UniProtKB/TrEMBL annotation:
GO molecular function, one term: nucleic acid binding
Ranges for region Disordered: 126-150
Protein name, UniProt field: CCHC-type domain-containing protein
Source species: Popillia japonica (Japanese beetle)
Record's compositionally biased regions (Basic and acidic residues): 126-146
Cited SUPFAM superfamilies: DNase I-like, Retrovirus zinc finger-like domains
């Protein structure tokens, strides 16, 4: 599949600081992506699901049929906000009223409508049941038992990495993709497991405004000391890398975006490695540096 085979319909911000995008691509690739459930954008796994569309008539504003099939009342001259017919919605100063569900508080063309949400829920449930029937029809009894045993393990790569980190060491390293939710989850997990240091790549910039966070010059990596067990003597920050100077060693945390051009990527990696030659006692270097073409 080539890049030109993908049509981006919309990109919308979410309440957690991330973005949701709607794309159109051929059926084979769409089914494959939905089957996988996640894709990686940079270093962050993102959920993929089929978009649910409900057919709507823009003549009567009801659902379930198209305009050319409509036999209902013609509401094309009706204000979508208050149901009156003497003005348009953009000129309306009245209270919002939905002529579909007959309730106040939202317009007739908004997805907040309870009737619309009910149809979406029913369609989603129908698709989920259909997928479940297809999967069950191709599984043996042994596979079904294994699937039941694995049913509680559906976690993100980020949470898996955090769980592994808590079992092996006293710090957590994670890429949160600038999102509020994952950033807060990483912090809560680090506190819960009494971690000494929290390292975050692509941190949420509003969350690390606190002076307790140690950041690089681009705010691509950040570190937070959580306990008194670790004493930072000093630190230095560059473009995409951060060095913490402790009593016994230096800890390096680096991030280079995998989505830039290869020559820019190689230049950044070389600059970081030259910078690090000055630090000889490294306990560990956490370097999220893998280009998409590798």
């Amino acid at each position: 599949m080539q890049l030109q085979d993908i049509e981006i319909v919309s990109i919308r911000p979410t309440q957690y600081g991330g973005q949701n995008s709607t794309v159109v691509l051929n059926k084979q690739w769409a089914n494959e992506l939905c089957k996988r459930g996640t894709i990686r954008i940079g270093w962050t796994p993102r959920h993929v699901r089929q978009r649910i569309n409900i057919t709507r008539c823009y003549r009567c504003l009801e659902f379930g049929h198209h305009k050319w099939e409509c036999k209902g009342k013609d509401n094309t001259a009706t204000c979508l906000k208050c149901e009156n017919s003497d003005h348009r919605a953009k000129e309306c100063t009245g209270e919002s009223y939905c002529l579909i569900c007959r309730k106040n508080g939202h317009r007739a063309d908004r997805t907040r409508c309870p009737y619309y949400r009910k149809l979406i829920h029913e369609k989603t449930k129908e698709l989920a049941n259909e997928k479940g029937r297809r999967k069950d029809s191709t599984k043996t009894n042994s596979e079904k038992r294994q699937a039941r045993l694995r049913s509680n393990s559906g976690r993100t790569y980020a949470l898996h990495d955090m769980a592994y980190a808590t079992a092996k060491q006293h710090d957590i390293q994670i890429n949160v993709g600038r999102t509020y939710a994952l950033h807060d989850m990483a912090y809560a997990t680090a506190k819960q497991h009494d971690m000494d240091i929290l390292f975050v790549c692509e941190p949420n910039k509003k969350r690390v405004k606190d002076t307790n966070w140690i950041k690089d010059t681009r705010t691509d990596v950040a570190a937070l000391i959580l306990t008194k067990n670790v004493e930072v003597i000093g630190h230095s920050a560059g473009d995409g890398h951060l060095v913490l100077e402790l009593e016994t060693c230096d800890i390096v945390c680096c991030y280079v975006s995998p989505n830039i051009e290869m020559h820019q990527y190689e230049l950044k990696v070389v600059n970081i490695m030259i910078y690090l030659l000055a630090f000889h006692t490294l306990r560990r270097a956490s370097m999220l540096m893998m280009h998409r073409f590798w």
